[in-house]
Design goal:
Layout: H1 14-24, H2 30-33, H3 53-66, H4 72-78, H5 87-93, H6 98-107, E1 117-123, E2 126-132, H7 141-163, E3 172-174, H8 184-190, E4 194-195, E5 201-206, H9 207-224
Parallel strand pairs: 3-4
Antiparallel strand pairs: 1-2, 2-5, 3-5
Length: 227
């Protein structure tokens, strides 16, 4: 993510809308959730509205100040389907193999309101999503964790969706920050144990099992039009 994109309004407001929805269920008004963003609840449903990364991060900062529920970023991440991503999401669900899915996700990540830098790597019998903050942008630790929790949940939710089952959870997650009080939420939303104070942030899957399951499922989706 290049720093000039920080203020550019080029993304549909699906992430902002999901955050506002989750906060509204906690009794937090949309006006409070959107404070400082220049957005209104009406603009989130207006065709043609575009938002910037800065506007979304501002809304996340508001959420940290307003919400007492540590599950908020996990709930937001679980409510953003691939269909919300337009052509980016369409390209992902049309991937013919699980390897292609990973490649497309990283190659076109700039189209998906990229809050974090994302890559993937194969290592032995495992494949991992690897996430990192943009070194040109600094965030308070609590906000960094909020963004990471949301992104990890999105990745896990999307992969479950394209594989059409929950029988292949991640093998584990690693985080660079220290363990928060709500570590149980990682297991609940990601489907795996998380280890903290590690060298990198990553969500890891058993590669061979994922490959066999993903290739069969995704070829079926491509030939039948299912997503």
């Amino acid at each position: 993510m290049q720093l000039p994109l920080w203020n550019e309004k080029r993304y549909a407001p699906y992430k902002v809308a999901a955050l506002v929805e989750v906060l509204s269920e906690q009794g937090i008004s949309s006006e409070a959730s959107l404070s400082g963003t220049g957005l209104s609840s009406e603009s989130l449903t207006t065709p043609g509205t575009l938002t910037s990364i800065r506007q979304y991060v501002t809304a996340c900062h508001n959420a940290l100040q307003l919400s007492k529920d540590p599950a908020t970023p996990f709930r937001v991440g679980s409510r953003i389907p691939l269909s919300a991503y337009g052509m980016y999401g369409f390209a992902l669900v049309c991937s013919l193999t699980i390897r292609e899915y990973f490649q497309v996700a990283v190659k076109y990540h700039q189209l998906a309101t990229p809050l974090l830098a994302m890559s993937w790597r194969e290592e032995g019998d495992y494949v991992s999503w690897v996430l990192a903050m943009n070194p040109a942008i600094t965030h308070p630790d609590a906000l960094m964790r909020f963004l990471m929790e949301q992104q990890l949940t999105q990745l896990a939710t999307h992969l479950r969706g394209v594989l059409d089952h929950d029988r292949l959870p991640p093998a584990g997650a690693t985080l660079t920050y220290s363990a928060p009080a709500h570590t149980h939420l990682y297991k609940h939303y990601l489907g795996c144990k998380a280890r903290f104070s590690q060298p990198m942030c990553a969500l890891t899957y058993p590669w061979r099992r994922l490959w066999r399951s993903g290739d069969n499922r995704m070829r079926f989706a491509a030939t039948t039009g299912r997503n």
